[in-house]
Amino acid sequence: MRHLIIRNGRLVDLASRSAPFRDILVGDGAILEVGPPGLAAPEGAELFDAAGLLMHAGLVNGHTHGVGTLTRGSRDRFDLALLLANAPAQTSRQSAEIKYLNTYLGALEMLMKGCTTAFDLTFGVPFASTEDLIAMGQAYRDAGMRAVMAPMIADTPFYHAIPGLYDSLPDDLKPLVGAAAETDAVLGAMRAALEAWPHDRDFVRLGVAPTIPLHCSEALFSGAVRLARAFGTVVQSHVGEAKFQAVAAIERYGMSMVAHLDRLGVLGPDFSVAHGVWLDADDMRRLADAGASVSHNPGSNMRLGSGIADVRGLLAAGVNLAIGTDGSASSDNQNMYEAMRAGFQVAAVRHPDMERWLTGPEILRAATEGGARETGFTGIGAIEPGKRADIVFLALDHPNWMPVNDPTVQIVLVEDGTAVRHVMVDGRLVVRDGRHLGSDMGALARRAEAAKAELAALQGPALAAAAKLEPFASRFCLGLAARPYPVERFATCSCCTDGGFSAEAV
Ligand SMILES: [Zn+2]
How far apart are CA 284 and CA 256, in angstroms? Predict the structure, then answer.
């Protein structure tokens, strides 16, 4: 066994909101013992000096999309309707090499900002072949990060997913809408990828993501979940993200999106909801009863104008909570510290009663233990015996930490990733002195510029066609969002809503 003894560091303790000095003994990537300074270590154990460093468990990004890293910061004002209208054009025509690069650059950013595991909703079949998926899995392996990679699958294009949207388009634009995919072909491709998956499942596993219930026939959604269960992996779907979707679900199913999924029998401990903004009390209870998780993505929810999730309601109902950044196409960066901070702030914006806000330890727990449970990686999320040694080391001689106060609050509200000194995954350093080991940043920057030019040429016509449809999608979805819904998740009062966007669109 290869032993590693980490000495002289301070370890964040959620329960006592303190950071006592602790030594950590690691054997073959597993945490064997955590104890006070002077912890006994086997002869020959390698010494890792953590003097002047604060240790916390590697953060878990509960929801992201490696597919969008190259588009970071490319859009100004942009909402979910526009994102979905553009998504097929934006994810198509990418070579396997560009898919790898997208995924690798996202992983790199996460690692350098203290995140060691991600739930990545990646290119869905048929946009990625089994070979492409394996290559993207290799990107996480090469970067040295853990991930669930769940291809986003669907059989219903966005314009058919929202009742009435297709019919609202001018006749001359209707041919621009993509065709529906064949349900059996999509499920067959997903099964083939699951059967072929060659990567070590302790590091990179394949999940399944029926991307949005409205975009999936009942046969596809149920079939996807059956496949996930047959292969013992996890499922994630975007549920209750934007109001127009919540309203469309009532119109389509005669019930909420979560009630519809419950009726299909797909909710369970292996199921997670991304976003969960437009959930009512009954939805939350159904998710809690099933042991399901919600990835709260506050940065994305604000950036796309989706609304403010009732996270206190989710926790009170007993739903397992994770924190996510969302993809760089919808929230621009992959900074989990920023996502945690936004999570604290939006909870406070929702209600004047502090009892309904989230605490520092609650958010940090969601971003570590909650994410571990959500991703199905049971051996991560905490620094304690039996867990894997995924450890972030923050520099206490950085302004963020002068002085050390309540470290749980300080990680959530002060740390921004700039004090990340080292990052360890499975007992091995992947980031040392703020630099990712094994990456040539200059070469990557040149490669990213080249990929951007390549994609502009390849995707130009498809993006131009999508742009023609955009205004119609935007106006139609805004019209749906102006309709009444049992819960309010915008930061507007009803009088502003009535006067502000009682759109004449629908
Ligand atoms: Zn998403």
Answer: 11
Q: How far, in Å, are 32, 50, 275 from residue 64 at the CA level?
A: 31, 31, 11
- Cα(140) to centroid of ligand 1, in Å? 19
Per-residue model confidence (pLDDT) at position 504: 43
Span 119-148, pLDDT tens digits:
999 988 777 999 999 999 999 999 999 999
* Three-class secondary structure of residue 238 per DSSP: strand
In three-state form (DSSP H/G/I as H, E/B as E, the rest C), the secondary structure along 440-473 is CHHHHHHHHHHHHHHHHHHHHHHHHHHHHHHHHH
- Residue matched to tokens 């998740």: 489
User: Separation of 274 CA from ligand 1 center, angstroms?
Assistant: 7
CA of 237 to the centre of ligand 1 (A): 8
Domain positions in the chain are 59-340
3 state SS for 25-57:
EEECCEEEEEECCCCCCCCCCEEEECCCEEEEE
Multiple choice CATH, 59-340, 3.30.70.420, 3.20.20.140, 3.40.30.10, 3.40.1490.10 = 3.20.20.140
Within its chain, how far is the Cα of 241 from the centroid? 13
DSSP state of 268: S
- What stretches in the chain show pLDDT beneath 70? 493-506
CA–centroid distance, 53 to ligand 1, in Å, is 34
